[in-house]
Structure prediction request, 194 residues.
Amino acid sequence: TYGLILALVFGYLLGSIPFGLLLTRAAGLGDVRKIGSGNIGATNVLRTGNKGLAAATLLLDALKGTAAVLIAGHFAPETAVWAGLGAFLGHLFPVWLGFKGGKGVATYLGVLIGLAWQVALIFAVVWLAMAFLFRYSSLAALTAAVIVPIALYFLSAPQIAVLFVVMSIIVFIKHRANISRLLAGTEGKIGAKG
Ligand code: G3P
Prediction:
């Protein structure tokens, strides 16, 4: 049990590093929480107009999930899922930002890369197809979050599927403002400045 708690805390600390906020601040772009959706994720960093920073945010927010899973898994394989959950929760509820973090999509993908990379490819294909068709980052993420647990259940690891059911539900809860905007037709499209 101590190992699981240690993995959860280790993952949390990695996940709670708010890369979007740190990168935009370092680039002198001000506080990303004051523009667009107010989120600290790559989609909102893109609303600053800086594509490179948005890509770096996506990469680093995903990497912290992958790193948590792989490092914990290296020491004790059974703790990998807990480190992944910790990283995801750390991104969503970082103690450093008064527990007001991001929406978890990039970190969710990063954890998935670490635990079941084949299904991470499915995530990427679904996300890209939906983004290409409709141009809403949130809709693309929500669709991928529905497909991933189903794909995990049928294709690879049922035990990991439970973790992703939980994380997908949390992703939906975190996107409730996006869902209202999608239904109202007022959601910002990818790349539109905010
Ligand atoms: O990954 C977050 C994305 O799904 C929505 O971001 O900034 O449009 O709320 P945002």
Q: What stands out?
A: Residues 36-37, 39, 41, 43-44, 103, 105, 137-138, 141, 178 surround SN-glycerol-3-phosphate (CB under 6 Å). The chain has a mean pLDDT of 95. DSSP finds ten helices and no strands in the chain. The radius of gyration is 16 Å.
